[in-house]
Amino acid sequence: MSALSRLTVTETKLFFREPMVVFFALAFPPVLLVVLGAIPAMRRPDEDLGGVRLIDLYVPIVIALGLALFALNGLSQLFATYREKDVLRRMRTTPVNPRVLLGAQLLMSTIMSVATMLVVLAIGRLAFDVSLPRQPPAYLVGYLLAALSMFAIGLLVGSLAPTGRSANAIGSLLFFPIMFFTGLWTPRDTMNGVLRTISDLTPLGAGVQTLHDATAGHWPQLPHMAVMLGWTIVASGLAARYFQWE
Question: Do the Cβ atoms of 158 and 164 come closer than 8 Å?
């Protein structure tokens, strides 16, 4: 096995030793979708939204919420805790390159989050008759770009934060504005022009729109893909540049 493969397996085992992180990263999004779908108003067509049901709009938002929780309150805290407990300092004595360690974290997080996304889509379809994506390849591409951009941001926070608590605090500060522009409190379809433009420039705002487009049968728009790719390149580059072993 390559160093990346071995580290990915090891990081996956360590991830499952943190029950709270596992719950909020993997189990909370499906539970939240069930709670939202149990509200009758979420399942009725909304005339203000052109007859679209709110539950249809919220499936991509719940998926994005899972990514944000995984990246900002799970991955970053876990990584900073490694530093706080001197796990990274001991690893420094090995031939492991920081980019390999960051890559293992990204790979593990992406695999786990894809599984959660599939569960959310299955619940939406089977329990609430939410349409599945008409363009599955486009949906997967959009999802992976959104996931990589958020995980890169999470790793950047984890690379800079000295302790797990500080990583959690920074992640929480970033979480709420990111989720606002994702449409958690105000769906993107009801945002005014300025808010919608700002939302399009955020990784999950662009990601949610991409998932909506793929669900409707359209391929992702190039500007949205460029935004997510840009966040991935910049954040991952900074994470590798300012990586601290201790």
Answer: no
- For residue range 82-129, what is the model confidence (pLDDT) as tens digits? 788 877 777 777 777 767 877 787 788 888 889 999 999 999 999 999
Distance between the two ends of the chain, CA-based, in angstroms?
A: 28
53 DSSP β-pair partners: 45
Give Cα separations from 190 to 88, 153, 187 (angstroms): 45, 27, 6
Tens digits of residue pLDDT in 151-207: 999 989 988 888 888 988 999 899 999 999 998 888 888 888 899 999 999 999 999
Whether 126 is covered by a domain: the verdict is: yes
Residue range of the domain that includes 172? 3-241
246 within domain boundaries: no
- The number of distinct structural domains making up the chain is 1
Contact assessment for residue 128 and residue 207, using Cβ atoms and an 8 Å cutoff? no
In angstroms, the Cα distances linking 208 to 31, 171, 191, 199, 231 are 19, 20, 14, 10, 15
| SS3 state at 45 | strand
Q: Which residues contact 157 (CB under 8 A, 6 or more apart)?
A: 72, 76, 80, 167, 170, 171, 174
For residues 246 and 244, give the distance between their C-alpha atoms in angstroms, rounded to a whole number. Answer: 5
Cα 51 to the center of its chain, rounded Å = 29
Give whole-number Cα distances, 24 to 95, 105, 130, in Å: 33, 17, 23
